[in-house]
Structures are given as C-alpha cells and as structure tokens.
Design goal:
Blueprint lengths: L13 E3 L2 E4 L2 E4 L2 E5 L2 E7 L13 E3 L9 E7 L15 E3 L3 E6 L5 E9 L9 E10 L7 E6 L3 E15 L5 E9 L11 E5 L5 E11 L6 E5 H8 L6
Parallel strand pairs: 1-10, 8-14, 11-16
Antiparallel strand pairs: 2-3, 4-5, 5-9, 6-7, 7-9, 10-11, 12-13, 12-15, 13-14, 14-17, 15-16, 16-17
Length: 238
C-alpha cells in the first residue's frame, strides 16, 4: 500500500497539469519549458495578478499556505494591443492568452512531463503516470485533443474549430486565431496543457494552453503553441 498523489497535491519534480496558486486564485500548469536557458513554466495570462503585462506574480504549488510550496515568478506576459493586425475596432487583442514564469533555482521540474490521471473523462484527479511531450502542433479539425487540469482532470474530445477570432465575455479582450475543443472544463483548469496522443502510447504532441470555456463546461478554447511562441519567444518544451 502506498500513498497516491492527485493534481491538487504537492508534486516534485513539477510536471504540467498540476494545481498552482497565485494571490487568492487557483490555476493549472500548462507546460514546462526553457527560454534562453531560463527554467520556466507556461500558464494562461489570466493566471496572473493582472492579465497582460508583467507584475511579478508569485506562484505556489499547490498552495501558498503549504511550507516550501513557492515555485516561481512571472517574467513574461505581453500587453494586449488595439493595434494588432486583425483586431476588431474597440478591442484589445493578442494571439495567445499565455504567460511565462521562471522557476526558483531550488525547484525541480520535468521538461516535457505531463501528469497522467487514472482515466479520461471520468473526473479522476489521481496521478497514475506521466505523458511525455515529443513534438508540437500539427492539429486539424476532427483530431481528438486532450487536456490535464486540476479541476476536471483528464478530458478529451474533438477539435471542432481552428483559428477562431474569440472574444472574452464581459471584457473588450479578443484572442486571434484560437482553437475550440468539445471536451469538459471547469474553473481552475485555466492554464492547462492541451495535447494530441500519438497512438495509444504516453508520447504526445503539445498543442497549446487552455484559457477558457463555455458556461456549460462542455467546450474549451486554447491558444496554439505557434501563437504562444510568437508572443513569448522560442521555447524548448521537450
């Protein structure tokens, strides 16, 4: 008999899909990366104290209240702009809703690692293994996309639309060229990794970062990895 960890527990080395805490809010880790040699993780831009612009948000995994839980600090989160090509009149736009945080030097992490729960679309948060990123992008409508997030765990469904100009409810923020997936999502899943499985193995292709969903929790939207790297710069993800 051994203890089992969930996506909401403290897990080291840190992998994608785990719960993170910032200020008084909860999100999920999208993926680990290095940027110019700096050990980092990427999550959603709303998973910062101020969406768009760097204000040094501190991150904890899983909760600030747990001793030794601090893991890093926000270092990249581009401003939203009215001047971006294709941005609707009156809106503030970006091509990705993503931000990057630098890991503290003492924090261990697994480059290319994503927590794998015990089952898909069953609500399980129990970690049973690990997916390994071995490539990026290449998705088309009809592909089955997966995500691991701290609220709804591992969910998967068809990519229904690609490169959609997407408005954010209750704001003037618009994200250009985003992708939609017919799969479960809940509050706190923001920042989750999105990926394609290659066959039935644990090897996956990283697609991007989840940042929103519909009110029914049956559809999520993510920023493609190419858009993320266009705004955050080149990232080594595996």
């Amino acid at each position: 008999i051994r203890f089992v960890a969930t996506l909401r527990d403290q897990v080291r080395p840190v992998v994608a899909g785990l719960q993170i805490n910032f200020f008084i809010y909860i999100c999920s880790i999208g993926f680990n990366a290095t940027s110019g040699g700096q050990a980092s993780f990427v999550t959603a831009s709303p998973c910062t104290k101020h969406q768009g612009g760097v204000e040094g948000t501190e991150y904890f995994q899983p909760l600030e209240s747990l001793a030794g839980s601090r893991i890093g600090t926000e270092v990249a989160d581009p401003e939203y702009s009215r001047d971006l090509a294709g941005c609707p009149t009156g809106a503030r736009c970006r091509r990705s809703d993503a931000s990057r945080a630098a890991y503290d030097s003492s924090v261990g992490f697994t480059l290319g690692g994503i927590a794998q729960t015990t089952g898909v679309n069953d609500g399980s948060l129990t970690i049973a293994g690990e997916f390994t990123i071995t490539g990026e992008g290449g998705e088309v409508v009809g592909d089955v996309a997966n995500k691991i997030g701290r609220t709804t765990g591992w969910t998967a469904g068809d990519i229904t639309n690609t490169c959609v100009t997407t408005g954010v409810f209750g704001s003037n923020i618009v994200l250009l060229c985003q992708n939609f997936v017919s799969a479960g999502v809940g509050g706190g899943d923001s920042g989750s990794d999105v990926f394609l499985r290659t066959g039935g193995s644990s090897r996956v292709r990283l697609l991007g970062v989840l940042w929103g969903g519909n009110g029914a929790g049956t559809l999520f939207v993510y920023s493609p990895i190419a858009n993320i790297e266009q705004e955050l710069g080149p990232l080594t993800t595996f």
